[in-house]
């Protein structure tokens, strides 16, 4: 009995191992390809900061340790490889979750993978093109004639990579809530009822992961509010109740047919009296 229970668990672990190995290989290939363009990639990554620093006439970045530049380029290559391998990572994740889905739900896996990559890149792009310029201007605004900003490569890379990954993952909110609605963990009514609490959480999250000024916090919270409304729409279209009606359309017809008042009348005996 114990062996029967252990076998599915062992197979599950084996599948997890295989998918992790393929994910690591994809990231490794992306890292190797990105390393050949490490200088250019870092220039692209620090472009918003250089633009903001250029307004103050001091568009330079430093490194304070001899190996700092080398390891920074390695980390930039890894970040680029991670982003490049995101389609494979999302595919392996959703395929690992797929055994818990119904057959009719598995047909949505490919669109879900595509949307996962889309929302991740959308969130990262939003952070890079929208939030970074305003955030850097806020931080550089504390510079004076005697105090100049001299950011190091290591510190900037750590800050920028965390921000890009955070924005990319936060923008996965519609898919996560729609998936939870599909599994019956949340409902449309639940999401609508707790909208005000969700908005409060969005502003708290925005205050944590964005620079400490009101403008960038609002710029982070507003997209989350829009994504939450998209999540409600997704839960309404693909939630568990919608799935049940799609799987058993005859059941809904029976429910409407059962309302016939003639069905409640007793059957008449048409046999002649003897």
State the end-to-end distance: 66 Å
Write the element-wise H/E pattern from the N-terminal end onward: HHHHHHHHHHHHHH
Stretches where pLDDT falls below 50 for ≥5 residues? 1-6, 251-268
* Portion in helices: over 70%
User: How many DSSP-defined strands?
Assistant: 0
The secondary-structure class comes to: mainly alpha
The fraction of residues assigned to DSSP E strands is under 5%
Contiguous helical run count: 14
Describe the main β-sheet briefly.
none
Give the overall pLDDT as a whole number: 83
The geometry reads as: flat
Gyration radius from CA atoms, angstroms: 27 Å
Which descriptors would you attach to this protein?
14 helices; disordered N terminus; 274 residues; flat; mainly alpha
How would you concisely characterize the structure shown here?
By secondary structure, the chain is mostly helical. It has 14 helices and no strands.
Folded structure, characterized:
This protein has 274 residues and is mostly helical. Helices cover 75% and strands 0% of the residues. The protein is built from 14 helices and no strands. The chain has helices spanning 2-35, 38-45, 47-54, 68-84, 86-97, 103-106, 109-140, 153-170, 173-182, 188-193, 195-209, 214-238, 240-247, 249-257. Helix 2 (38-45) crosses helix 4 (68-84) and helix 4 (68-84) runs parallel beside helix 8. It is flat, with a radius of gyration of 27 Å. The termini are far apart.
């Amino acid at each position: 009995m114990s062996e029967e229970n252990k076998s599915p668990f062992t197979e599950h672990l084996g599948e997890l191992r295989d998918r992790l190995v393929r994910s690591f290989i994809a990231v490794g290939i992306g890292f190797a390809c990105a390393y050949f363009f490490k200088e250019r990639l870092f220039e692209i990554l620090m472009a918003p900061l250089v633009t903001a620093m250029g307004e103050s006439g001091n568009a330079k970045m430093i490194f304070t340790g001899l190996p700092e530049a080398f390891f920074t380029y390695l980390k930039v290559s890894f970040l680029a490889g991670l982003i490049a391998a995101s389609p494979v990572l999302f595919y392996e994740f959703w395929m690992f979750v797929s055994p818990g889905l119904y057959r009719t739900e598995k047909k949505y896996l490919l669109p879900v993978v595509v949307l996962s990559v889309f929302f991740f890149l959308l969130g990262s792009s939003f952070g890079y093109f929208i939030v970074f310029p305003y955030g850097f201007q806020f931080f550089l605004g504390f510079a004076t004639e005697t105090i100049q900003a001299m950011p190091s490569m290591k510190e900037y890379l750590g800050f920028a990579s965390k921000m890009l990954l955070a924005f990319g993952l936060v923008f996965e909110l519609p898919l996560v809530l729609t998936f939870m609605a599909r599994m019956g963990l949340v409902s449309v009514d639940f999401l609508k009822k707790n909208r005000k609490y969700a908005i409060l959480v969005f502003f708290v999250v925005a205050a944590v992961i964005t620079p400490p000024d009101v403008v960038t916090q609002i710029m982070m919270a507003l997209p989350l509010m829009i994504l939450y409304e998209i999540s409600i729409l997704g839960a309404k279209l693909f939630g568990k109740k919608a799935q049940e009606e799609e799987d058993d359309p005859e059941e809904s017809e029976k429910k409407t047919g059962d309302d016939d008042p003639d069905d409640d009348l007793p059957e008449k005996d048409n046999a002649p009296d003897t």
